[in-house]
Amino acid sequence: MTNSLHPNGPRRTPLPPAERSTEGVPTPRSAPSRPSDRTSKPAGATPATAPTAATATRPGKPRDAFFDNAKYLAIVLVAMGHAWEPLKGQSRVLEAAYMVVYAFHMPAFIIISGYFSRSFDMRADRLKRLVTGVAVPYVVFEVAYVLFKRWADDDPSLPISLLDPWFLTWFLCALFIWRLTTPLWKLVRWPLPLALLVAMLATTSPSIGDDLDLQRTLQFLPFFVLGLCMKPEHFQLVRRREVRILSVPVFAAALVVSWWAVPRMNPGWFYHRDSAQELGVPWWVGPVMVLALLGCSLVLTACFFAWVPRRRMWFTALGAGTLYGYLLHGFLVKGGDYWGWFDHEWLHRPLGEIFVTLVAGVAVTLLCTAPVRRIFRFAMEPSMEWAFKRDATELARERAKTPA
């Protein structure tokens, strides 16, 4: 992250500089760790420029702990939601919590991704980072997930198709598309209404199909464009004390409404991957649900941001590894499903559900740590200098520095 938000009131800060990656988990790429990033600091200290996805490459730029904290907490909720999925069918309370979490965890992540994409343009170095930080991990993990399923689930018939994202890789595919279209959204006069219109039309079009998971990409698009349109003072609005207090009854009401809606609503609406017709309703219900879910998601996301700590915490540095936690925890969740870990009867009782929730939180936390990032950096942060031409300006500067 770049450009700390001022804690004592709204103050305009410059756009984030060129990012080392594109994460909004929020972005899916972390820059190489430095020893100083792992050194703990007392609360209130100026955060170090911990390299991470969605952070700047320029040394000395402070990171805003608020965004790293938000990314970490969001990825923990993602992992918990995936762990709940095999258990929720027998617990109405768990299914209600599942619906509430799914209403805002990915929207929050995508909004942060859009916010830190504001400086993206078609400059060569940024396109290079987009390829190495998003496209390459997409290819690697799309293949890895398919091979893992073939082995763990004894399903050799599953094809490897880079056009049909499987499980978690849809986010990388969507982020690649969103980033490429960023200059367009910065150019048009009314970007957010236009993105909302695109999402509404997508829900009426079952012919879009599964290629590149475009249905989900288009339906989540308004959250990314909203992030592009946001400024630091907008985040200050939800970090006020009165908003934090109000968020408690709002979340409580959301849980009550969700508990009521469990037998009455198709949870597929929260995945944003199907058209209205595919969910068994008339086409006109799609646009209505887009507007309704957008409103619910924004309210709950604001409540979530209101409770994200703004100072450095023990988990702040883990915000640099959210892409790692996001992509790697899928192997644990799918492996547990294939190997019957969730079939034990005691896991479907309240104490078992709490146990699974805690295990998911601990597991994804460990997957965000520096040792794991060092091991898997070859797949998520490849330099790939061999694949790109050297920038002419950079070469000229090097020649100028070379003594005759």
Automatic annotation (TrEMBL):
A Pfam short name: Acyl_transf_3
Region Disordered, annotated ranges: 1-62
Transmembrane segments annotated in the record for this chain: 96-117, 129-148, 160-178, 190-208, 214-231, 243-262, 282-307, 314-332, 352-372
Keyword list, A-Z: Membrane, Transmembrane, Transmembrane helix
Ranges of biased composition (kind: Low complexity): 41-59
Annotated Acyltransferase domain residues: 65-369
Listed InterPro entries: Acyl_transf_3_dom, Nod_factor_acetyltransferase
GO molecular function, one term: acyltransferase activity, transferring groups other than amino-acyl groups
PANTHER family: MEMBRANE-BOUND ACYLTRANSFERASE YKRP-RELATED
Protein name: Membrane protein
Organism: Streptomyces olivochromogenes
